Amino acid sequence: MTDAAEVVARVHREEWARVVAALARRFGDLDIAEEMAAEAFATAVERWPADGVPPNPGAWLTTTAHRKAIDRLRREVRREEKHREALMLSDTPEPLGAIDDDRLRLVFTCCHPALAMEARIALTLRMVGGLTVPEIARAFLVQESAMGQRITRAKSKIKDARIPYGVPYREDIPARVTGVLTVLYLIFNEGYLSSNPGAEAIRSDLTTEAIRLTRLVHALLPADGEVTGLLALMLLTEARRTARVSAAGELVVLAEQDRGAWDRALIAEGHALVRSRLATGEAPGRYQLLAAINAVHTDAPDVRDTAWSQVVALYDQLLRLDPSPIVRLNRAVAIAELDGPEVALAQVDALPLDDYHPYHATRADLLRRLGRSEESRQAYDRAIALTANTAETAYLLRRRDQLAARSS
């Protein structure tokens, strides 16, 4: 029973986007796609413990969801025309203007410029990333009800505006790609450090899928600097995945990671992409700069060998493109290594990020390094209260408790 439940949970992570995308292509309706996919997974929860897990769970789920959708359309007389269209559709995908991939079609559909950017991101995180409404609401720092309404309105806009389900033709892709990259980056970030306390600390299903889709976009637009930069950034970050959580389930920060456990093939590929962009002589964009920063980190055989002045210089370039408090916070972390924690703390304290847990975690570490233990403990408490990720919580608790042990 438990084994079947675990398989359903794993298959949901791995197959949700594939099932939804197949239904969306077949029926052209995101509501039907999402609802019938959910019903298929609910059926699996009921039947797999008794009947056993099918040899091909994804195909079983897609077939089950497809049958449920047909049954639903047959029951709804008001949708008779849609019913006939669905029954007449061939299982063979229609010709595309670019790459034939159902999930990439779904990404571009959800990221149509007719939708507001926040709606595009939220809808894609739900339909492609498989994130729950609460997870997406946390990512946007809004109420669950408001996020649910935003996603519902976005799906209605796609239906009412008859937005086509497919990858646009090549000449139309550049105008659409910014929103797509934003969404893929957010999906990757949710996998990099899950915001759901009930999920695994690192969701490799999300990081793997984000990389797969970004590779497809890169194949469409190989000369686009930001597409290349995002792919490089993902690869260089993913290369460190196995070293980021200890055997005890605690987050391992960059300075403490076993660099011998990093994936050197991914690092080599990421570095090659970064160098290819540098060779063009074109001004780098945001993702290219973030990739370059990660290239500096992954190039150092030991944290003591990190070229911190280069990291700060890259953050200075990034600030000209994105002068956000979060970029300033990350730059301050590098400043602490270059100019000391006191200089960095003065910069951090000026940032308006009281509800952002990395802000408090950074302050806690800087205060600890300055010997200000009580203030550091308070900052750790605040960071812990704002953190949902179990591995990160374990790390912060240990660091805070070390302060208490040191003072006793």
UniProtKB/TrEMBL annotation:
InterPro entries: DUF6596, RNA_pol_sigma70_r2, RNA_pol_sigma70_r4_t2, RNA_pol_sigma_r2, RNA_pol_sigma_r3/r4-like, TPR-like_helical_dom_sf, WH-like_DNA-bd_sf
Record domain RNA polymerase sigma factor 70 region 4 type: where: 108-158
Span of domain RNA polymerase sigma-70 region: 18-78
Protein name in the entry: RNA polymerase subunit sigma-24
Keywords in alphabetical order: Sigma factor, Transcription, Transcription regulation
Listed Pfam families: DUF6596, Sigma70_r2, Sigma70_r4_2
Cell division keyword on record: no
GO MF term list: DNA binding; sigma factor activity
Record keyword GTP-binding present: no
GO annotation (BP), single: DNA-templated transcription initiation
Domain DUF6596: 176-275
Protein family membership: Belongs to the sigma-70 factor family. ECF subfamily.
